[in-house]
Design goal:
It is built from three helices and no strands. The chain has a domain of 54 residues. By secondary structure, it is an all-alpha fold.
């Protein structure tokens, strides 16, 4: 009977060791959970960026206001009848 109890106790210790320190144990689970959290945050940022790009593409395809705004900002375009002023800061 003592031998049986000793074997069961050894089995319990072995199983607990594998649970806490073994491969795919609680330590690995915690590390993987943190990694999943980081990946989900990254995915939400990428989804938001993609949504902004899709809305910009839609604006460029459907209207001329977005095209005009980009031409003014990126290419320095000026409409007829408008006056362009360039303000240059003083050098020290």
């Amino acid at each position: 009977m003592r031998l049986f109890v000793f074997l069961m106790l050894c089995l319990l210790v072995l199983l607990q060791y594998h649970l806490w320190f073994g491969k795919n144990g609680l330590g690995d689970r915690h590390a993987l959970q943190e990694e999943v959290t980081l990946i989900l945050e990254n995915n939400s940022e990428l989804r938001q960026r993609n949504q902004m790009m899709f809305s910009e593409i839609k604006d460029l395809k459907e209207g001329t206001d977005a095209i005009e705004e980009r031409a003014r900002n990126e290419l320095g375009l000026v409409k007829e009848g408008e006056t362009f002023f360039r303000i240059v800061p003083k050098e020290d």
